[in-house]
Amino acid sequence: xANPRKRVPENVPGDFFVDSTCIDCDACxxxxxxxxxxxxxxxxxxxxxxxxxxxxxALQALLAxxxxxxxxxxxxDVKAVMRDFPLLIEEPVYYCGYNSPKSYGGNSYFIRHPAxxxxxxxxxxxxxxxxxxxxxxxxxxxxxxxxxxxxDAQRYxxxxxxxxxxxxxxxxxxxxxxxxxxxxxxxxxxxxxLAIPTPGHTKGHCVLLYQERFxxxxxxxxxDRDSRHLSASEDYCWYSWxxxxxxxxxxxxxxxxxxxxxxxxxxxxxxxxxRLQIERLAESMRERNRT
Length: 291
Hints:
Layout: E1 16-18, H1 27-31, E2 36-39, E3 42-45, H2 52-64, E4 70-72, H3 78-82, E5 87-90, E6 93-95, E7 109-111, E8 118-120, H4 127-135, E9 141-143, H5 153-160, E10 163-167, E11 179-181, E12 187-190, E13 193-197, E14 206-210, E15 214-218, E16 222-224, E17 229-231, H6 241-251, E18 258-261, E19 267-268, H7 271-290
Parallel strand pairs: 8-9, 9-10, 10-11, 15-18
Antiparallel strand pairs: 1-4, 2-3, 5-6, 6-7, 7-8, 12-13, 13-14, 14-15, 16-17, 18-19
């Protein structure tokens, strides 16, 4: 629970606030961009909610915050908002919410599918979300992009009987995973699902392409809200930036319209523009390697 005595000084006056335990994961700014802003290594309340929609988004951000760093002094019905998660992005893909501190606040996603639902990376294992996922039909498959964002994957696997899928190079983070990807791929996992190797951020990092429309990118790729371009982070590349650049270039041969990252802003673009942005980003990454 956020502590009013630890409010960061940037907060505007009002019921909603961010305290000093914030880890600047960006989740609140993605969910409620009209309410939350970014200061030096923290989020803050830049404007109190002005509508019922903004109020609900702010409460969703409060629940999604991995460190419980968002507080509300009012008497809003947080329990009702719990039933909002997972949040629909576009059928049949949802954002889970309840980001986990074990993944530094990484986003996780849910695909509802008649042949078995999928979880991509892991949120916190919390009762309200578990009940909602049960109501949606449970989880048959858990795709883990890389070691950083496994969070509570084992608990979800145990509860739902879901098969965890991870590359062998990341296996030490989930040694009991039921499906291990070997070699260089790509790997068709089921009709419409393709795991694509993207070494760079970590050695065994992989992304998941669903129906040539949704690309779940882990920590490989996201959208920069300021520059309005696709982006990758050299500062948070733990294995090999040159390999990440080459992995980026190889994505240009795939068709997709959505980038759904573990960290950073998601975005939808026309497939042709997405390919062009991927090509430009890959070239800029290679250029940095040459200098």
